[in-house]
Structures are given as C-alpha cells and as structure tokens.
Specification:
Strand order of the largest sheet: 1-2
Distance between the termini: 37 Å
Number of strands: 2
Number of helices: 4
Helix content: over 70%
Radius of gyration: 20 Å
Shape: elongated
Largest sheet: 2 strands, antiparallel
Length: 144
Amino acid sequence: MGLFFLRTLIFLASSALGLIVADLLLSGFLIEWEHWWGFVICIVIFTVLQSLLAPWITSMANRYAPVLLGGIGIISTFVALLVVVLLPIGGLRISDLLAWILGPVIVWLVTAVCTVVLPLLLIKREVREAAATAKAAKAARRAR
C-alpha cells in the first residue's frame, strides 16, 4: 500500500512539474492559475490518462505501426494533453501550434526525468534512515 501511494504521488508530482515547466517555457501553453482547482483536476486526469494510454498505444503500435514504438511516451503525452485541454474543467489551455508541438515533448521529458530522479531521492533518504536505525540497534546490542 505504501509503495503504491508513493508511486502515485511521484506520478502526480512529475505531471505537475512537467505542465508547469511547459507553462514557463511556452507562451501558448497556459496554466490558468485563477482556476487552480481546474489545474489540480487536470493533473489528476492527465496522470491517469498517461498511465492508461501508454500501454494501450504501445499494443496498438506494436500491432499496426511498430515504427512508432520509440515515441510512445510523447504520443501518449500528446493524447493526454489533448483530452485535458478539451475537457470543460479549465486549468489548462494550449493556444498555438508551437505549444502543441513542443508542449508534449517538454512535459514528457520533465515527467520522464522526475519519475527516475524522485524515487532515487526518496529511496536514498529511506536507505539512510534504515542504516541509522540499524546502526543504533547494533550500538544498543553492544552496550548490553
């Protein structure tokens, strides 16, 4: 249960960071901060769609267009962004062609890096804590 929660939190955080970086870098990629609740819903929907679309698009590409297999992450990011932007919840708008082209690449790149780096940082902290606990237990045994 803890691992599932941690992974979900990492996916949500990486999605949020990816969308925020795209907002900062692209003028046509707009997070509507006045509708912050819409942005939170966008993050959740985007993360769920990414999780569901990537395996489905992979199986479709494997069957019908194997040449696309290398770009599955970017394709599923594009589709997830398209769905989130089309939903009438507010929170995210993509208004020009450059943002539609570069937005998925930026979001995919940031989320890919975050899903690798964030677990390493969290695991590293937990390993240090476990080592400190083991060291304290060993010292306590020696003191007896």
